[in-house]
Amino acid sequence: MGSKQVQEPEPNLPQKLPTPIIQTESGISIPAVQSSYCWSGTCADYVGGMDLLEGHTPVPVLVGEKISIDMGIEIPPDELEMFEYVDNRSQPITSTGGTFQLPMEPGTYYYRAFVRWSSPQDSQISLGDTSFAFVVRVVEKK
Predict the structure, then answer these.
(1) What is the dihedral of CA 93, 95, 100, 102, to 10 degrees?
(2) Which pLDDT tens digit goes with each residue over 4-32?
(3) Which listed CATH number (3.30.1370, 2.60.40, 3.90.1010, 3.40.50) goes with 21-139?
(4) 0.85 cut: is pTM over it?
């Protein structure tokens, strides 16, 4: 008898584009600004980089605090890449499971995230992706 390959069903992602829930470890909510995405058969392309955050007020947060990003859906993404803008250039930063640590140096920091859900059969096939940006003002503890 030959072996049969069982195909895993595709994860059932919600029809509505997920909205990230971004919070500091002390419970401060940070609003995200939607950027480019492909979701439920619709793709949208937005201006990138820091231009996307123009006119948005940075949220004050404490130096060194941890930030967590939850996409608010049951199916975890296969990929979550974080970037920080330094001198108007995007640089990757290390995050673990959607959590990363803010700098110890006070100042205004701009971040971008790219999140993707892939097919279990072929990681090259995207079932949906989204990107967003946010800005924080890191301040000293009082």
Answers:
(1) -10
(2) 544 555 678 999 999 999 999 999 999 99
(3) 2.60.40
(4) yes
